[in-house]
Amino acid sequence: GVVFPYSPRLGRYNLNFHEAQRACAEQDSVIASFDQLYDAWRSGLDWCNAGWLSDGSVQYPITKPREPCGGKNTVPGVRNYGFWDKDKSRYDVFCFTSNFNGRFYYLIHPTKLTYDEAVQACLKDGSQIAKVGQIFAAWKLLGYDRCDAGWLADGSVRYPISRPRKRCSPSEAAVRFVGFPDKKHKLYGVYCFRAFN
Fold first, then answer.
1. Of 34, 41, 60, 93, which has the highest C-beta tally within 10 A?
2. Which CDD domains match (predicted)?
């Protein structure tokens, strides 16, 4: 499977524990366990924002120590903020997905799309607009690689790069995050997902 950090359109540190669980479920995944995050860190996940884990702790994985992330002179590792109030405390979340039962694809379309047009284009093609968990699963489990930014169900725009190259993701394989653009802008394509029955 694959662990991915998630924060909503509102920006970082906006989810209490229960909202974090719901956010992962909405992205076709579950909230990650410590063991899953630890394995992801050992595989190179480096993320400087703290996120909820399934045991109610708040942690984040650092492979390249640097000033804003615990300091330059610290050792790499999974940084632990400890346990926080599940109702009042707000962080990002680490989600986990291993579930991939369908076809994930970039929809070839003659024009760039607004968010609503993107949703409709996938439906017209017999699919749904893809979720964040689905783009991470396709990238990690299938080696999906596409240098085209596309809308996803949560209103974010991302693209998956397995083979780093100039102008796409020069230094690392990653799911690149463009942001949460205005949904009325016709600037992007769309990633769709068709479930296998």
1. 93
2. Link_domain_HAPLN_module_1 (cd03518), Link_domain_HAPLN_module_2 (cd03519)
Spatial separation of the C-alpha atoms in residues 81 and 92, rounded to whole Å: 13
Q: Where in the chain is the domain with CATH 3.10.100.10?
A: 2-96, 101-195
Helix, strand, or coil here: 189? Answer: strand
d(CA 11, CA 83) in angstroms, rounded, equals 22
Tell me the average pLDDT across 149-164: 97
Query: Could you tell me which CATH class the domain 101-195 is placed in?
Result: alpha beta
**pLDDT classification of 156: cutoffs 50, 70, 90:** very high
Measured between its terminal Cα atoms, the distance across the chain in Å is 21
C-beta separation of 9 from 155 below 8 A: yes
SS3 139: helix
SS3 assignment, position 166:
coil
Instruction: Confirm if 76 and 62 have CB atoms less than 8 A apart.
Output: yes
Euclidean distance between CA atoms 43 and 30, whole angstroms: 19
Q: Which tens digit of pLDDT belongs to each residue from 69-100?
A: 888 899 999 999 999 999 999 999 999 999 78
Which tokens go with 127? 């699919």
* Separation CA 157–CA 152 (nearest Å): 6
Name the strand (E) or helix (H) holding 41: helix 34-42
